[in-house]
Amino acid sequence: MAAVIAATGVVKTFGEGRAARRVLDGAALHVQPGEVVAILGRSGTGKSTMLNLVGGLDRPDAGTITVAGEPVTGVSERALSRLRRTHIGFIFQFFHLLPELSGEANVLLAGRVRGAAPDAAERGQALIDRLGLRGVARSLPHQLSGGEQQRFAIARALVNDPPVLLADEPTGNLDTRAGAEVLRLLRAGAEEGRAVVMVTHESAAADIADRVLTLRDGRLIP
Ligand SMILES: Nc1ncnc2c1ncn2[C@@H]1O[C@H](COP(=O)(O)OP(=O)(O)OP(=O)(O)O)[C@@H](O)[C@H]1O
């Protein structure tokens, strides 16, 4: 089966001259549909950097990355932005919901971008129901618990039915119970055929993964 995420030879350096630090040095990552991959590693080893490069939030110095067969590297900012909106759902530790919009509006807005799935509005409403958020749909993010905010963020990430979900410490700011629910939802996202990559420090998160990779010396190793 073709990998949904295919990254090879990824190099990323931050800083210049003597301060330059090669954070990624030939990193590779291949993820199949339906697979959950957890990325572990010590602080500062480049886990978030790798996730951001795969998601087209940043560009590598060298290497090739494709998502669902489409190039993430060597493409225009416009093409990259379309790919991010339609092919990738992002989930972050601090949720990143727009603070002035209700949870529901955050989800629906993501379904109204150019290139969004035609049934995104219905999907958004169905996700709000399925994730148990109907009763708080009109609340603003600051009126919601962390677990509720992260569930809205997951609904937002799923609204365009992307083939890839990227989660950076998705349970890092949640209590055990809310964290377990988020992990269950990520797992369910994979069961629906998505490739899921999660950066985590938490063993409970790694436990739901099909594969665990460790970032060390600029590479991802089994
Ligand atoms: N935009 C940037 N500019 C300069 N340095 C950066 C930038 N982004 C990351 N770095 C550096 O690259 C290294 C890797 O950062 P990254 O956030 O990828 O690590 P991480 O493994 O996710 O760490 P943590 O587990 O602490 O979140 C760090 O030394 C960080 O300071």
From TrEMBL:
Keywords: ATP-binding, Nucleotide-binding, Transport
Keyword ATP-binding among record annotations: yes
Limits of the ABC transporter domain: 5-221
A molecular function (GO) term: ATP binding
Coiled coil residues, start to end: none
PANTHER family according to UniProt: ABC TRANSPORTER RELATED, IMPORT ATP-BINDING PROTEIN
Name of the molecule in the record: ABC transporter ATP-binding protein
